[in-house]
Design a protein that fits this description.
The chain has helices at 15-46, 51-60, 64-75, 80-91, 94-101, 109-116, 121-127, 136-143, 146-160, 164-170, 175-190, 192-208, 214-231, 240-244, 252-264; strands at residues 2-4, 9-11, 128-130, 133-134. It is mostly helical and 265 residues long. The strands form 2 sheets. The chain has a two-stranded antiparallel ribbon. A two-stranded antiparallel sheet has the order 3-4. A hairpin with a 4-residue loop joins strand 1 and strand 2.
Length: 265
């Protein structure tokens, strides 16, 4: 259960319980990651990548959008530098996401750096509590199943090398975007600040994509998310608060009625 106040969010439950809860939630993310990773492995092999570099890329980068951008740029003959730059621009969205979780981090530099490795899109959304606060144990737990699923899926895609027809037939290339759409809709339902940030991000991305590369447009959209978090730090939790157990302050009339009942009894 979460107890919300104007200044902070207090978690009820041990860190281990929240870690396990995050791992359970991360299984859904891991299944989507696995399907997309199979597609990446197959695509990389189609583009002429050797098996070992492809798997190492997933081990180290662990970012579907950046890895697809890297593979596409290399396939287009742009060279290594433009390809790495495109991937870096796409992954630059993690900068505002990391800034957002900074107030929730605890411990020394090493602990904070290790927890920061768990900042991936789905885990970040799952761990968001509102008012700019994050459940770090839940975020780490949600990331733990995703990394092995991503690497394993890449290896299967590399060695089984399914044809583009199989990818299209089973819709493997749309599973991950569809999963994130579900997460986005849930966040929009719960938070007015999220709706403002999403609207601003959509406008920025739509305008920027006409004049700059996709990676730069995505970075601009992610900055809108940071502005939304900062601007919505004091927003009340909406109807989703009841589902998360956020405590509500009793109305004055309800308090008076309770006091009257106690006096009569």
């Amino acid at each position: 259960m979460l107890t919300a106040s104007r200044s902070d969010v207090t978690l009820d439950g041990t860190p281990r319980q929240r870690l396990l809860s995050g791992m359970w939630s991360g299984l859904g993310l891991a299944s989507a990651s696995f399907a997309l990773a199979v597609t990446f492995g197959a695509t990389a092999r189609t583009l002429g990548w050797d098996p070992l570099p492809t798997i190492v890329c997933s081990l180290v980068v662990f970012s579907g959008s950046a890895q697809f951008a890297l593979a596409t740029a290399l396939a287009g003959g742009g060279g290594m530098l433009p390809a790495v730059a495109a991937a870096a621009l796409i992954n630059a969205r993690f900068i505002p996401m990391s800034v957002a979780i900074a107030p929730s981090l605890r411990g020394g530099p090493l602990r904070r750096a290790l927890v920061g490795q768990a900042v991936v899109d789905g885990s970040w959304v799952i761990s968001h509590l509102g008012r700019g606060r994050f459940d770090l144990e839940r975020m780490v737990g949600a990331t733990l199943p995703q990394w092995p699923a991503w690497v394993t899926g890449t290896a299967i895609g590399v060695f089984l090398h399914p044809s583009p027809e199989v990818v299209d037939r089973f819709g493997l290339d749309v599973i991950f975007p569809a999963f994130f759409l579900v997460l986005l809709l849930e966040e929009l339902r719960r938070s007015a600040a999220a709706r403002r940030a999403a609207a601003l991000a959509a406008v920025l991305a739509g305008l920027l994509v006409m004049v700059v590369p996709v990676g730069v447009a995505l970075l601009g959209a992610s900055l809108a998310a940071l502005l939304g978090l900062l601007g919505g730090a004091g927003d009340p939790v909406e109807d989703g608060a009841a589902e998360t157990g956020a405590a509500k302050k009793p109305a004055p009339d309800e308090t008076a009625a309770d006091e009257t009942t106690e006096e009569r009894s």
